[in-house]
Records
---
Amino acid sequence: MTDMTDGVYSDPNETPPLIEAVPLGLQHVLAMFASNVTPSIIVAGAAGLAFGGPEQVYLIQMAMLFAGIATLFQTIGLGPIGARLPIMQGTSFAFVGVLAGIAATQGLSVALTACLIGGVIHFFLGSVIQHLRFLFPPLITGLVILAIGLYLIPVAIKYAAGGAATFQMEAESFGSLMHWSVALSVVVVALVLKFFTKGIISNAAILIGLVVGYLLAIAFGMVNFSAVTNASLFMTPQPLPYGFEFSLGAVIAVTLVSIVSAIETVGDASATTKAGAGREATDKEIAGATYADGLGTAVAAVFGGLPNTSFSQNVGIVGMTGIMSRHVVTIGALFLILCGLLPKVGAVIASMPLPVLGGGVIVMFGMVAAAGLNVLSEVNMNRRNMVIIAVSLAAGLGLNLVPTAVQYLPGVVKTLMTSAVAPTAAVAIALNLLLPDEV
């Protein structure tokens, strides 16, 4: 499929024939599908929602629906909003650490309110994003992405081992051979398909691995289909399903991550134009991409969805196929919207046992950390930069692992200090501005 069209559609406004465009759009969805729904499952678990219950199903539906809507903001656009490039939007892993912490301690109402306000702030970053880029050289962005991955890896191991009582699993079965057999089957299948196949199968390796693990879990009697049976055929999103509850600390934490997410989107927009058209992204495209990021996040939050961002793995598909058509990605977005309106799709995903999901996120979260290391590989590892890395990671991850170390701080400050990502970013930015360059 890819050889037939390689390099032909380098203009974002061109559209391949439908017989090619539809499978290409589906290819974009398959590459990001698992990563898109996973953050909602994790945050729902942190909030104490019943595993496989209707509220978790709803959050999964919102992840699919608003990933599609946010993608339309990017590909079709509205005035200055949208890069009008083949950029796939999806639920962002960058916010998981912060939102899981907020949801666990203050509830989903506070978390989603922070997402709404953070999305509005993110939207307005589009007008100044070019002036903020100096604050986020590869040293900072790489560190933040690495911190996100390192924070999430223990979550992946917990899921693979069977979860815990807080996730509606039997505590005594934690770490059982059955759980690990299912989780490792996902890892093995995903790796084999990723590196020994090509095209759609390679890009959908993690999703196919999850399907194999899911089938194995069914064979082991681990899957309960009652939620699928009880799910309705169609759903209408509900505005503010958890209410509106303001917390300054939560808003500050989400906003800090939003800035990092905006810089990531700038990189994805630039990478997309380089990969598909051999040129740099224009200022208009970068601003439009950032506007779409923020608008997608704010609109999603109104209906219970988590923040959206551009998906880097889909940039790789543009580079692999040579197809820059934004309308191909629009087709993928429409497919996501359709899935988001069908609760039985969300119920099937929600019925997936935690060890199945754990196998997938071991790979996904590890790749987040590896992506951070890849960005840091561009950095000159002199003593100054190594000190910045050391102190930033020690502060961010250390306080997150030992939250009682700051238990006497005011609530707003404590939320920020224990969020892992926010202190890592803040310390790294401050040190990068204050420490003199080495000669």
---
Amino acid sequence: MKKTYLIKIFGLLLLFMYDVQMADAQLFEKLKERVKQTAEDKVINKAGDATEKGMDKAEEKITNKKTGKDDKVSSQSKKTTTPEQGTSKGAAQGINSYANYDFVPGDKIIFQCDFADERDGELPGRLTLIDGNAEVQTMNGEKVLHVQPNSEMQFIPVMKNNKYLPEQFTLEFDVMMFDKEDYYGDLRVFFQDSSDPKATGYSSPHYVEFLTLFDYDKSPRIGWAKPGSSNLADIPKNVAGGSGTWKHIAIYMNKNIGKVYVDQHRIRAVNNLEPGADMLRISSSSSRPVYIKNIRLAQGGDDAYKKVISDGKFIAYGIQFDVNKSVLKPESMGTINEFVKMMKEKPELAFEIGGHTDGDGTPDRNNKLSQERADVVKAKMVEMGVESSRLTTKGYGSSNSIAENNSAENKAKNRRVEFVRK
């Protein structure tokens, strides 16, 4: 009886070992098949990618031959744009480095172009290209204007008429250029007479060639150049830009007075400009790509205290935040510095800081975001020495819009921080 029992146990054990062996064999076969299939997929995908790239390259050559363009300049980028070597570092150097920044933009927006509603690979809908190649692309989740390498480009804003610059205005934009051994390139801003929008500007009596970040093999320069005279000065390369970093350019003009800022640095200030220019033109010539974003023209730029006294409030378009966040951009410090200084000099002043959004998004989200942004501004001002009791905050969301939510300019007008005197 005991012997029979042991034989049965031994038999079951052999059967179990056989099943395990068979399962392992089946598993091995499945793994082998999976490896084989993966290898085949890689070959197929690689071949497909190579075919697609070859077709893209052939299509590019055909397009360039038809349009008479050099093969070195692509007609359209089919992939998301990324900076050279992936070295985009952003425009911000830290908000604390803007402690002495004094640029305050105008409080009436004339033109706003952030490319947010435009499609990749398309020509910019808000800019008229006079010459050259440029297209809208996405870079790190942001829409930018990509100027093709080895090309010259000029554009003017699309406006209802060509006479849109007032006597007092501000211009802001961000630019990324590259500084290499074989690099040449420049970026120039022209304020000129509108009698001929396609003219180079050199013959205009009001012409001002304003900004040169790079000029071939010369040192970076910045300033003004007028017919027969110039006021350009060499500046350190780390201030001017290069190496794939975003630089924030801010320009203030008031009749014969002009100031130019690169990031937190005020580089030039003059008072001998010829007044009367009424339109804007920007040009670029570079052996490497140039990227531009966040172009904004605004009327005004008055002392904020005058506006507070005359209007009882000040619309602070200079206070900017990261998209859909309550994180202050460093260039916001120009306006914040102005109000902190004002409140320290005028102890009788007290303000409500009102946060406002455009009409995109849900009301709940906009209310929350606008409140958070107003709170952040107050916190920064209190940190800088303003008594907390003199500041209150309120997030209005999109409930107090001052323009329809139907264009880039109108959305920019609605996205604002207001200082309302109490």
